[in-house]
From TrEMBL:
Keyword Transport in annotation: yes
PROSITE patterns in the record: PROKAR_LIPOPROTEIN (PS51257)
Keyword line: Signal, Transport
Family named by the database record: Belongs to the bacterial solute-binding protein 1 family.
Organism: Nocardioides marinus
Coiled coil spans: none
Name of the protein described by the UniProt record: Alpha-glucoside transport system substrate-binding protein
Domain of life: Bacteria
């Protein structure tokens, strides 16, 4: 699962968005399911057990559902394979259209009256933008029922706009991870830290041994700085809690509120500490010029011990690197700063929005929200690199250890999930001043100055 922040198309889309997700606490209005009539093709088929909801949409033979998405090969093939059961059980075909210009072109298509049947939307702000066009239709009741059963309220809230539930979650990624070398930790007798203070104590121990405990890279072309925003978002969730995080994201409190300054200073204890960084690259200033793709690689050469980055970073390790608890590299959960705020999990994902009430479209939305599809998708992705927050996902169907760890993190009853904050902020902030000022902060600006400048940019 790629971060949508690192793609130029996402930046352009957020420039159109300029909105903050709000008003999610609501009646979750939905659509009544439509039926094509006839006998459900899945009737009596063993492979269609568990998909009885689809029967109410009738016989969909001869129909086609168009899907528009930013998910491209090689990930596309696994998605298409996971739709085969839908065709078997409904008769409807799925036409997959992947685009590297998805975020900008979706808005263009909607405005031109050429919206797709289904779009996989990777940002809550972009969902609100297309909803404001009046072209997105509410999710059918069976889809909402599945989300209530298999996803947490947080996830449903991100698919809800102004009291109406539109979009069920699809895939997901965990950002609250720290990558490390299991062998290095074992050889040195280092334990996985359970608290933030434990992590700092470990960092001190590693620094005393002569190794830099951390390596960090935030360079990402036009999106340089997004890695540092993730650090701050994770810290705010841990220090101030989910409610304050939501207020901050929605600008109900100032960007430079004292609670946010405190969290950024906490991050600075690591990222701006010359004793801690930047292993394998240079001094603190090298963080701003080190490509995020390269940020964790010094772990493989014993030049640093830890690298905070999302689950999708698994794809950045060189070919042949074993990613497992007993492998060359693995990840542990970024520990909490206190016990009061549960187990915060920062992440991202896609949401399934529909622009049609046709029964085949509603049926496909419903299929994608089931535990059955989540497991079909897992089994269709034997190489790993995909996970869902669907609690009906059997972790045994995930072949990648990091995917399994991600699913376990999502399914932890103590987990408090929050979507990436900058993806919900106005584009001038989330994809603009936030990235820029975090880069300036790394290279010398104070927490107060950097956050104050971001606050001034918020229109």
């Amino acid at each position: 699962m790629r971060s949508r922040k690192i793609r130029v198309g996402a930046v352009a889309a957020m420039a159109v968005t300029g909105l903050v997700l709000a008003g999610c606490a609501s009646d979750d209005s939905t659509n009544e399911p439509q039926s094509a009539g006839g006998t459900w093709p899945g009737e009596g088929k063993a492979e269609c057990e568990g998909l009885d909801q689809l029967a109410e949409f009738g016989d969909l033979t001869g129909t086609t559902v168009g899907v528009y998405t930013s998910i491209l090969p090689p990930e596309q093939e696994a998605h298409e394979a996971s739709y085969e059961l839908f065709t078997t059980c409904t008769g409807a075909e799925v036409d997959y259209d992947g685009s590297d210009q998805f975020e900008t072109q979706l808005v263009v298509r909607v405005k031109a009256g050429n919206a797709p049947d289904i779009a996989y939307i990777p940002q809550p702000g972009l969902l609100q933008t297309v909803v404001s066009s009046g072209e997105v239709v509410a999710a059918p009741t069976p889809t909402a029922d599945n989300v209530d059963e298999f996803f947490g309220e947080d996830w449903k809230g991100y698919g809800t706009v102004d009291g109406t539930f539109y979009a069920a979650p699809l895939g997901a990624s965990v950002k609250s991870f720290v990558w490390y070398s299991p062998k290095m930790f074992s050889d040195n007798g280092w334990d996985i830290p359970e608290t933030w203070d434990d992590m700092l104590a470990l960092s001190d121990e590693i620094a005393d041994s002569g190794m830099k405990p951390w390596c960090v890279g935030i360079e990402s072309g036009e999106a340089t700085g997004w890695v540092a925003t993730d650090w701050l978002e994770d810290a705010v969730l841990r220090d101030a809690g989910a409610d304050t995080y939501d207020q901050w994201v929605n600008h109900e409190i100032a960007f430079d509120d004292p609670a946010i300054v405190e969290s950024l200073d906490r991050v600075g204890e690591i990222m701006k500490n010359p004793d801690y960084v930047n292993g394998g690259f240079g001094d603190v200033n090298s963080i701003a010029t080190t490509a995020f793709q390269d940020g964790g690689l010094p772990i493989l050469d014993d030049k640093c011990a830890m690298h905070r980055q999302a689950s999708f970073y698994a794809a950045q390790w060189p070919e042949g690197t074993k990613v497992a608890e007993d492998g060359d590299v693995f990840a542990f959960y970024l520990p909490p700063t206190n016990e009061e705020n549960g187990k915060p999990v920062l992440g991202g994902g896609e949401f399934v929005a529909a622009f049609s009430n046709d029964p085949e479209v509603q049926a496909f939305q419903t299929y994608l929200s089931t535990d059955v599809w989540a497991n079909e998708k897992a089994m269709a992705t034997p190489g790993g690199g995909w996970v869902s927050a669907n609690t009906g996902l059997d972790i045994a169907n995930l072949t990648s250890p990091i995917d399994q760890l991600s699913a376990e993190t999502f399914q932890d009853p103590e987990a408090v999930f929050r979507f990436d904050g900058s993806d919900q902020m106005p584009s001038a902030v989330g994809a603009g001043s936030f990235w820029k000022e975090m880069t300036a902060w790394v290279t010398g600006d104070s927490s107060e100055d950097a956050l104050g400048n971001i606050e001034s940019s918020w229109q």
